[in-house]
Amino acid sequence: MTKQLDEMPMDFERALCVVAHPDDMEFGGAGAVASWTAAGKEVGYVLLTRGEAGIDGMRPEEAARIREEEQRRSAAIVGVRSVEFLDHPDGVVEYGTALRRDIAAAIRHHRPQLVVGYNHRDTTHTGRWNTADHRNAGRALLDAVADAGNRWIFPEAGEPWGGVRYVAMVGSPEPTHAVDVSGAVDEAVASLEAHKTYLAALGGGGPVDVRTPLTGLFRATGERFGGRLSIPFELVVG
């Protein structure tokens, strides 16, 4: 029998989502964000890149401008007002001290109790090889959480913050917990639809149905979560 998923903790006031690209949170995780902000939680986004390499046939500088605009609109739909971009190069995000320092600085600035990232594992939930950007971003995030609490690591990056209670990864092939998104399906769908230029490129220029796959994911997760429409997370720290 497939193991049932546990309820994600809710004893936090501030959450920070740190992902590689515009749209990473929207492929499922934004539904949880909408649920959290509706419950009075403060959520911020930090994007490592502007997604400038994500649209074939569009110059990177133009893609960066459009994808930033679409990400800000998308975030606003689910109640996120703080959206920051760290300008690491899309497609070649490198794990290392520079990335850890930037993420640690963001954690120290925002002082979250919950940190959310995107799948850090070698493979996706489909069994395919995970992208280098996602792997490197996720693993650097896990290390940066510890870095942020140590005043002797990156002392130039702000006052230490050791108050992170939980670190959770969306999109993981090894989920442990879930968030009920029954009341946030429309917001989750609209937040992904806000990436209209990127979606059009994925769909060859035609319309892309995002409601069907998103609700399918929510229902599939619900089979392990009491039948509730939900999104899965791997709780790595907590």
The top-level CATH class is: Alpha Beta
Unreliable segments (pLDDT under 50, ≥5 consecutive)? none
Principal-axis shape equals globular
Order of helices and strands: EEHEHEHEHEEHHHE
Average pLDDT across residues? 96
Number of helical segments? 7
Q: Mind telling me the C-alpha Rg?
A: 17 Å
Structural class: alpha/beta
How widely separated are the two ends?
A: 25 Å
| Total individual domains | 1
Query: Strand fraction band?
Result: 15-25%
User: Roughly how much helix do the residues carry, as a percent range?
Assistant: 25-40%
Per CATH, which architecture?
A: 3-Layer(aba) Sandwich
CATH topology: Rossmann fold
Strand arrangement within the widest β-sheet reads 1-7-8-6-5-2-3-4
Largest sheet entry: 8 strands, mixed
Give the name of the CATH superfamily.
LmbE-like
What does the secondary structure layout of this molecule look like, with pairings?
Blueprint: E1 6-7, E2 14-19, H1 29-38, E3 42-47, H2 60-77, E4 82-85, H3 97-110, E5 114-118, H4 132-148, E6 166-170, E7 177-180, H5 185-193, H6 196-202, H7 211-222, E8 230-237
Parallel strand pairs: 1-7, 2-3, 2-5, 3-4, 5-6
Antiparallel strand pairs: 6-8, 7-8
Plain-language structure description:
- With 238 residues, this protein is an alpha/beta fold.
- It has a single domain (6-237), classed as LmbE-like (Rossmann fold), CATH 3.40.50.10320.
- It is 37% helix and 17% strand.
- The chain has 7 helices and 8 strands.
- The protein has helices at 29-38, 60-77, 97-110, 132-148, 185-193, 196-202, 211-222; strands spanning 6-7, 14-19, 42-47, 82-85, 114-118, 166-170, 177-180, 230-237.
- It has an 8-stranded mixed sheet with strand order 1-7-8-6-5-2-3-4, sandwiched between helices.
- Helix 2 links the parallel strand 3 (42-47) and strand 4.
- The longest helix is centred in the N-terminal third of the chain and has 18 residues, at 60-77.
- It is globular, with a radius of gyration of 17 Å.
- The model has no long low-confidence stretch (mean pLDDT 96).
